[in-house]
């Protein structure tokens, strides 16, 4: 049976996402409002009986000086990825996007391929012979993900490489760190923290660190810490209006889609972080901290408060987002991996992002342009 694909309203899109256990925060309608440089469209797949069976948020970005677009479905679309007849989902999508002027389509199936337990990651970091996570035997494999990758290749999709030296892809990260919450008490989750984490949480408590929820007006405080973090860790910060737009767009759509947490000590805000919520999946999105008073461990205190709140909300996963695939001691991101795994997080590999060139010449030109950047 063929599926019909057509644009849908935000209300239809949102109702479908709300009917599922979770979907990526990049696949809700409001994410298009966060990205004004892209033209957003909500797509719906309909069964013959008129039932809405899947949705996708597609972002369209024009190629400089040409009225052709890169179409991108970050961490989506939200469809049945386990279906044996994937063509009936993806072929109408490609035809629709081509009619919209797309020269290339990029998507990120939200399908897990492999997982490594915290113990397996710690052992890999400690082993001087191990250089990359991808070369370490996984704790668990998802055969369906490898079947999906084979089917996509046969259909003409091309897998994007996992990224450069830092292990992060140009789009969304292929490797992430997640703490499973489903079926676990908060005490279980606390027991999953390593000794250093538990010690640091106690130290923060004794020092009088207080973690509070902030509002829109506190984004400027967060931003001051964020720019300090960017300078220290040598990355280019997003501008303040980006976070203000994100807050307004996401929380207009749902009053508890985005949260802000601030760690206070003796009148100083030492750390801040944003959290995103869609169904039972919660993401630690952006974090920021000052180098001052690190000894009172504000980051551990803040993350533990966020985890406790996530558990209270009924989360089935607490997602730390991207991690490095590189296990070299010289890599500046290894400390971040240790921090996340120390919280009981397992390393998770998704099937990655995939491209379908609708116009091979323009797709190749984009590849060359991105490589030069």
TrEMBL record:
PROSITE patterns per record: FEMABX (PS51191)
InterPro entries: Acyl_CoA_acyltransferase, FEMABX, PG_Glycine_Bridge_Synth
A single MF term (Gene Ontology): aminoacyltransferase activity
Keywords: Acyltransferase, Cell shape, Cell wall biogenesis/degradation, Peptidoglycan synthesis, Transferase
Domain of life: Bacteria
A biological process term (GO) from this entry: regulation of cell shape
Recorded family membership: Belongs to the FemABX family.
Protein name: Peptidoglycan bridge formation protein FemAB
Organism from which the protein derives: Streptomyces pluripotens
């Amino acid at each position: 049976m063929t599926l019909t694909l057509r644009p849908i309203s935000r209300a239809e899109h949102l109702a479908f996402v709300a009917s599922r256990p979770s979907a990526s925060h990049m696949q809700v309608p409001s994410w298009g409002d966060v990205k004004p440089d892209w033209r957003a469209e909500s797509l719906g797949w309909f069964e013959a009986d008129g039932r809405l069976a899947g949705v996708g948020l597609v972002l369209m970005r024009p190629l400089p000086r040409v009225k052709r677009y890169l179409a991108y479905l970050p961490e989506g679309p939200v469809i049945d990825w386990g279906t044996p007849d994937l063509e009936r989902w993806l072929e109408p999508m490609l035809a629709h996007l081509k009619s919209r002027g797309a020269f290339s389509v990029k998507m990120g199936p939200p399908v897990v391929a492999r997982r490594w337990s915290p113990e397996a990651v710690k052992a890999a970091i400690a082993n001087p012979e191990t250089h990359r996570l991808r070369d370490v035997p996984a704790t668990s494999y998802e055969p369906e993900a490898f079947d999906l990758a084979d089917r996509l290749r046969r259909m003409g999709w091309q897998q994007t490489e996992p990224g450069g030296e830092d292990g992060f892809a140009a789009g969304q990260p292929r490797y992430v760190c997640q703490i499973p919450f489903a079926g676990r008490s908060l005490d279980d989750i606390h027991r999953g923290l390593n000794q250093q984490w538990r010690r640091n949480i106690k130290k923060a408590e004794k020092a009088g660190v207080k973690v509070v929820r902030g509002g829109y007006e506190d984004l400027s405080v967060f931003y001051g810490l964020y720019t300090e973090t960017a300078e220290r860790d040598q990355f280019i910060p997003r501008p303040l209006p980006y976070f203000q737009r994100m807050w307004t767009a996401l929380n207009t759509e749902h009053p508890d889609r985005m949260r802000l947490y601030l760690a206070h000590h003796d009148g100083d805000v030492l750390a801040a972080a944003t959290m995103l919520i869609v169904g039972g999946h919660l993401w630690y999105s952006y974090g920021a901290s000052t180098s001052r008073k690190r000894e009172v461990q504000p980051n551990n205190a803040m993350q533990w408060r966020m985890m406790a709140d996530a558990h209270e909300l009924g989360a089935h996963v607490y997602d730390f987002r991207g991690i490095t695939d590189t296990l070299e001691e010289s890599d500046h991101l290894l400390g971040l991996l240790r921090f996340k795994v120390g919280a009981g997080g397992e390393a998770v590999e998704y099937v990655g992002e995939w491209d379908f060139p609708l116009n091979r010449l323009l797709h190749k030109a984009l590849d060359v342009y991105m490589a030069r950047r």
